[in-house]
Amino acid sequence: MNWTSISESTEELQRRATQVRRSSRQLWRRLALFLAVLGPGLITSNVDNDAGGISTYSLAGAQFGYALLWSLIPMTIALYVTEEMCARMAVVTGKGLSDLIREEFGFRPTFFVMVSGFLVDLGNVVAEFAGVASAMEIFGISRYIAVPIAGFVVWVLVLRGTYRQVEKVFLALCTFYLAYAFSAILAKPDWLEAARHTVIPTVQFNSSYLLMVTALVGTTIAPWQFFYLQAGFVEKRIGPRQYAQARADVIAGSVSCMVIVFFIIVATAATLYVSGHRNIADAADAARALVPLAGRWAALLFAFGLLNASLFAASILPLSTAHVICEGLGFEAGIDHKFKEAPIFYWLYTILIVVGGGLILIPRAPLWRILVLSQVANGVWLPIVLIFMILLINRRDLMGDQVNTPTFNVIAWITSVTMIALTLVLIYFGLFHPSAATGGL
Amino acid sequence: MLHATELLGGEAYDVQGNFVGRVSELYIEPADQPNRVARYLLGRGKYLPLLARHDQISSVAPGVIKLNVEEKELEHFHTNEAWLAVRKDLLDQQIIDTRGRKVVRVNDVDLAEQRTNGTVELRVTDVDVGLTGAARRLLQGLASPMMIRRIQQKLPARTIRWEFVNLIEADPLRRVKLRITHDKLEKMHPADLADIMEELSPTERQSIIASLDEQTAAEALAELDSRLTSQIFERMAPEKAADIIEEMEPDKAADLLAGLTPEMSQDVLEELPGKEAREVEALLSFDENSAGGMMTTDFVYVGETATRAQVVDWIRSRDIKLEQLDTIFLIDADAKLSGAVAVARLLLTEATEGLAHLKSEPLVSIAPDANEKEVFAIFDKYNLRSLAVVDVTGRPIGAITVDDVITRLRASL
What we know:
The complex is a heterodimer. By secondary structure, chain A is mainly α. Chain A is built from 20 helices and no strands. Chain A is about 80% helix and about 0% strand. By secondary structure, chain B is of the alpha+beta class. Chain B has three domains: about 1-160, PRC-barrel domain (SH3 type barrels, Roll); about 180-285, MgtE N-terminal domain-like (MgtE N-terminal fold); about 300-410, CBS-domain (Roll). In chain B, strand 6 and strand 7 form a beta hairpin. Chains A and B meet through helix 1, helix 5 and helix 6 of A and helix 3, helix 8 and helix 10 of B.
């Protein structure tokens, strides 16, 4: 063997070693990439199970047993289709939903969408703090202590932490939703019956049933989440190459969201409905009523889930609302800015938390009226936002070949029309049968 | 002063006082004059719209314009890519404020009237990005013009002079036709430019990078979030990418290539000139989180026997980047690292002084496979600004500079 061949073979060895090192790094990078993309969809869908959501789902289980479980499958589809549209717009245009509405529809429609969005979200924030209050009362802590502390913690957490750290906290919190699965299992439900009702729809035509369906859909598909989701993907710089991962994230989010809803309904159906405790007012009532039926642990888990959900949504909603409004109207936004650079952003954020939390502390505040109104506003707002979304995503100059397929369009339009119809139902009952309307919330 | 949104939707009358149509767009022809409203588009419902030229306008007021010709003398509408449309291209769109160094959204466009022998020309003076424009847009048609003006006066105005407005046009052909240059962007600090690019959409970013000179592009890209840089490079031709990477420091170039797909990174490496390609490839073989992955191969080293005067002359004769001129490394006769001299020391010594006498004590260096925590610790302990990386034989193969340490520390926060 001569010298050249030796040096060649060592070179060859070195080259191969580099290649191995590189490909192992590639694999790791792929995984990291997936984890990096994973986030907005999962977070958004899980924040969806907020205080208002949990109350509505518990009521659905308590009043109708397993009978409403069938609605989860169509709702999952609607949730996925609408959220996927946002993810796709984010990936293709690299712009937020409020940016796109502003650029394509002008100032006034944007302003209208933003103002109604602010009011709707304020109502939702009130609901979140109400959730904090009632969950903490189950643990024996007064709302006059719990709500100010919660408000302050949320305010500081978001303003002091950078976005990435905050998001990690949120992602970790998502796993706490498993509390509902345990609650459901502890409640020893009739799984066969539950499965049957999930697949086979049973429709009733009476006012309380219709109201419950309206509330279910309204609380599951909320317009703020489209803005939040799209902004999340834009902020994470998800490009067309990672679109598959982004879609996986959206699927994981919508499905996991609905699985949690399933467990909440099953838990309350197996206990409250079966034993005849059908007249509960909210999630906290449900937790209390669970004690004699499923044991103290199931009830505490349920209350803990409620607390976590409320805090989670209370931290995200005000932030995303302030963001969306400022971006759409062209004001500086974001927690990277100082107060002086983005005063409107910080004021909006603070007002949402202070007013939202403050309303809970006013003795005998007409909370249910606020919640009904915010639900109606939600229902009015959603079709408008959805129609804007459908118009945007079908524009070839924006989306290229990534415009909606006919199937997606049909599902999106059905969702919009259903929401309009359901909102009309809600307004009808709100105007003419206010007592029935409040029962549904 | 007039505002574009007060004119848009306004009525147009010809010289006889007959209604012609409604103003639906204002066009600027940048190739002719950069700020003059050159044509007014008059919409006429189901009829074909007409175009009025700037010299056919006799008066302009909010909501009304008057022509000095008859309707039949107006041209029929035809589109022209070289015209800048105030409503479509400016209103509600994002622009770059080159003086304020940020991306802002246009609420309104301010126009000044200029009378020349019987005609009125409108010139764009500012774009409104503040509350005044927003209030006007919101209230128009709902409140009287007087009331709107009164409300406006109470609001803080935020406008940007037209000279400092840099339009963002994604289509390169149209950009040329509209005479949009990025000279002002090239004069900005690369870090500011990077901040601006982070706020834009991918297509817009791509178009700006494509129009910058390679040097500026390289500097701005080096400051950009790594996820963005790989996205930008993946949409670029390998030759163009190689041209930009050639301008970068080898460590930045290696970091960037490591983030690309293996095929893309290979394509770019093939386009790079031999020396650069070898350096970058050598850097690529180190683990990203090791001293080797942090170092650059662009560092200054001289023989330890040199005098100050010799070194300064040598530096002057070479094209050395300012960032590298922080520490000069010394090597002995075996090419082993024998010392490090802070360049500031050279200012304080005689021309004949030997560099060996100016060494910082103790001599510190690090092996390429040391992890980044060890690097941070050494920087902290000895208050370094630059640290030599040596191979097993003690020869320097690269240097880590403090700016890279700060970037990494911040990323790990």
